[in-house]
Specification:
Helices cover 8% and strands 10% of the residues. It is low in regular secondary structure. The chain has a domain of 33 residues. Strand 1 and strand 2 form a beta hairpin. It is elongated and about 70 Å long. The structure holds zinc ion. Zinc ion (ZN) binds next to loops.
Length: 59
């Protein structure tokens, strides 16, 4: 092993569940990176809706 590269900033990559495009880690996500699923707020709003959701009859 050649220990030459140290302190190299690691940029994680995820795939947006909406547009299926890879996006990289951002500073604003450092606290919630495990929960991030969308590349942007726009995709977050365009997230697929459950067509067959649970319909709870209100009586
Ligand atoms: Zn996206």
């Amino acid at each position: 092993m050649h220990a030459g590269k140290a302190n190299k900033s690691y940029l994680a990559v995820k795939t947006c569940v909406v547009c299926q495009r890879p996006f990289t880690w951002r500073k604003k996500w450092e606290k919630v990176w495990d929960e991030v699923k969308y590349c942007s707020e726009q995709c977050k709003r365009n997230k697929p809706q459950n067509s067959t959701g649970s319909q709870t009859p209100t009586t």
